């Protein structure tokens, strides 16, 4: 049986609309399924853990955005149950990385005919992330975006991605770079003025920004983009280039890779993991090789 977890409020109500379309397609095709609707933050994790008690689960398909996918993954990581996603959020970076169609019926067909494939994830402090984590500027942008009404307005016009950009431009004027120690696979790096550190398992974050263009979800490594020691103008220039992944050779931008990463600071660090926000003073990140089974659509399929 296929189990759907639908976040009705993802993409400002797009999740609910998409589900009503999918429901009739599923009935028409006589596909046996169960559906659960999320009722609030972290409910999707609870639902995923409950699903583990059900026998004969073929797959769990999320209808929602990266936040819902993140929550469901917390329950499924380390199990064999394959996870798929029909994009219904505002950012949809997971769906973008796996080239899942934005047309919900096509996405359903792609997922139902796909094969399970194990991908890497990362453990960060007590949780996991699937897409990536952002420390510093992007952690702060994610927090402000989640709290802001701009995202709701833009989602209504199907321009949810723009919310990150508008808030990033606003925060650019006030953000103060952070002093921190970064450790990658036992090597220590000290930075006085860090704008951001992105730790990525897939190339995208923030609704399609290609922050770590070469990140691969099955190479046993996490890609890092570190931006430090530049002024606001140069940071803005890198920010503009990040959409096409052209920022990597800009001054102040360093790209690295590693398996075990830790970040420590005397101040609290704004952090997001798959768009969900925290404020610790340190973070320890370890890659978890092939720990999540996903419904995998081979990349030669260009129908998205
Ligand atoms: N019924 C609900 N009411 C309010 N919030 C909910 C409900 N169900 C889930 N949530 C919360 O909604 C949040 C946002 O969901 P999600 O990330 O899937 O959509 P999005 O923010 O529109 O998309 P994206 O993350 O791709 O930008 C999740 O963090 C989840 O905890």
From TrEMBL:
Keywords: ATP-binding, Kinase, Lipid biosynthesis, Lipid metabolism, Magnesium, Metal-binding, Nucleotide-binding, Phospholipid biosynthesis, Phospholipid metabolism, Transferase. The keyword Nucleus does not apply. PANTHER family: LIPID KINASE YEGS, SPHINGOSINE KINASE. Belongs to the diacylglycerol/lipid kinase family. It comes from Aneurinibacillus danicus. This is Diacylglycerol kinase. InterPro entries: ATP-NAD_kinase_N, Diacylglycerol/lipid_kinase, Diacylglycerol_kinase_cat_dom, Lipid_Phosphate_FormReg, NAD/diacylglycerol_kinase_sf, YegS/DAGK_C. One of its GO terms (biological process) is phospholipid biosynthetic process.
